[in-house]
Automatic annotation (TrEMBL):
GO molecular function: ubiquitin protein ligase activity
One Pfam family this sequence matches: HECT
Record organism: Schistosoma bovis
One CC-aspect GO term: cytoplasm
GO terms (BP aspect): proteasome-mediated ubiquitin-dependent protein catabolic process; protein ubiquitination
Top enzyme class: transferase
Stated name of the protein: HECT-type E3 ubiquitin transferase
Catalytic activity: S-ubiquitinyl-[E2 ubiquitin-conjugating enzyme]-L-cysteine + [acceptor protein]-L-lysine = [E2 ubiquitin-conjugating enzyme]-L-cysteine + N(6)-ubiquitinyl-[acceptor protein]-L-lysine
Domain called HECT: residue spans: 50-173
Protein's pathway: Protein modification; protein ubiquitination
Enzyme Commission designation: 2.3.2.26
Amino acid sequence: GNIEQAWSFENKVASFHYLCHSNLVTKNVKVVVSRSNLLVDSFEQIMRLKPHELRCRLFISFTGEEGLDYGGLSREWFFKLSTELLNPMYCLFEYAGGNNYALQINPASSVNPEHLEYFRFVGRFIALALYHSRFIDNGFTLPFYKRMLNKNITLADIETVDVEYYNSLKFIQ
């Protein structure tokens, strides 16, 4: 059998975390952001970092607030920034529709002239969350994840996002 299929999801996650932690850079990176300008401050600082610096321990602090980041501030930063960054009002993402609150790329995202840089930022941010084992506030559609993993999207995947579109495709098939 295929070894990849034999591994349980839990084993894959454990292996991923092991590889991340064994590749951790011992240097620290400090990120100072204002709560009132969270998105722009975070964008400017994270996009300035070199790729190897993304593997450093993150120390998050909020402007004008005392406190050391023993994990709580970075957890808060990941959650609050993901809530803001993935908010459909910025036109980068939209809800899949109906009662499906999974996110997909908004076809009108180019209304923001910096949308491509912000998508790069989203990629870095998600990579940081995965690398540092942090949660983000929302999730994406199955086809979105499959595209990120360079996997083929099937007709059944489309059904998870848009049943009406899926039925139309099935009809003409």
